[in-house]
Amino acid sequence: FSGHTRTFFMNTQNEGKLSDYYALGTGAGLSYKKELFKKLEFGTSGYFVFNILSNDLGKKDSLSNQASRYEIGLFDIESPENKENMDKLEELYLKWKDDRFVISIGRQFIETPFINKQDGRMRPSVCEGLYTNFQINSELFLEASWINRISPRSTTRWFTIEESIGIYPSGFNINGIPNNFKNNLMSNGVLLMNLTYRKNQYEAKLNNTLIDNISNTVFFQNEFHIVSKSDKSSLLIGLQVIRQDAVNEGGNADQTITYFNKGQHSWVFSSRIAYKSGKFGSNLNYTRITNDHQFLFPREWGREPFYTFMQRERNEGLSNIHAFTLNLSYQLHKQYKLNLGYGRYYLPDVSDFQHNKYGLPSYSQINFSIDGKLNKLLDGLEWNLLLVTKSQIDDKSYSPKFIMNRVNLFHFEAVINFHF
Which residues of the chain have pLDDT under 50? Predict the structure, then answer.
């Protein structure tokens, strides 16, 4: 048996007279794992969440006609008024494993470049399906999964793959009309293949994510580490290449309510150079989404793997962008780590819905966070503080709907986790 409690406070301050939001959530869960036979394991876990304190997260701002974006995600986005009846059976699986092979079936947490726990709220996303992992040799590893149901973070229900797309806000289609693909898509599931090669200081990953009847995404990541034995410093050079293509009609033959337009494709290139020495770490990153079509992937399933990703914003739904980030970290003590990140994201105009699905202005972002542990005083207790500022980087005057929860805001988080 193991347990986990989590308490999460969020507050977003928007510009001027736009609405501000706050929320305090807490929850607890239990996990049970049992070795039934020598190589067979049974596992299950469940969790419940309470809304301790918040303003009306479902109430729309009078100027922008939008509600909370971040705080509502702590609870159940389908029922913002629900404050206490939020519980879910998360894991329920059987796993067989030996030294080189793992196969598990049921409800489980899965980590891939695009489908992952994305656990920046009270509870992470969970998948249902079949997962396998095979160590071909000491350098080559193969993973394969079939997912037929998913329970995204910020929800309490389980959904089929086609039902889960569109639970989160869907933005606009290329004609500037609000997307209406929710409950209008057809897909049987998701097939994942992941190949990892590691040798000495080199690592390569090749991932293919096929969403049946909707899209196919190929992800390639190439990283080379240079380690200095004299001063224990290291240099990392990384490159990512992503190619997306629509499958069939992209989810629906009616192109006004489909997810991918027929024939649509996109390219993404992301690069990193990172340096680490002692307690200090840094990385400089650049991402380019080309001018072909939008990079699209259901936000309900995970966060994007780009090197320029920063907490509290994504570049999904965009094309023709340039993104730059610089991240610094310092291990102040064995139990405390400081992180500072700065990013600039140059995006198409907010009215260019062919390249800007959510109408997001070009922006700069600063993230500052502190991670801490209290191992000596209370083993298993961890805490995190995060401060985020986002500002538009042009001098254009935007209507409130393009400002609210997008730019010109301050966001604060405090999280306490206790594992026992």
Answer: none
How confident is the model at residue 84, as a pLDDT? 85
Q: How far apart are the first and last CA of the chain?
A: 9
Nearest of 240, 241, 295 to residue 266 by alpha carbon: 295
CA-nearest of 301, 239, 256, 240 to 111 is 301
Q: Which two tokens stand for residue 309?
A: 């990703």
Other CB atoms closer than 10 Å to residue 407's CB: what's the count? 23
Residue-wise pLDDT for 317-338, tens only, equals 999 999 999 999 999 988 899 9
- Please identify which residue in the block is written with the tokens 């100027």: 63
Q: Percent helix, strand and coil across the chain, each rounded to 5? A: 5, 50, 45
> How does strand 21-35 pair with strand 2-13?
antiparallel
Is the Cβ–Cβ distance between 343 and 365 less than 8 Å? yes
Contact 315, 345 (CB under 8 A): yes
Q: 220: which residues sit within 8 A by CB, 6+ positions away?
A: 204, 205, 206, 207, 240, 241, 242
Q: Tell me the C-alpha distance between 285 and 261, whole Å.
A: 30
Q: Cα separation of 127 and 123, whole Å?
A: 13
d(CA 186, CA 215): 12
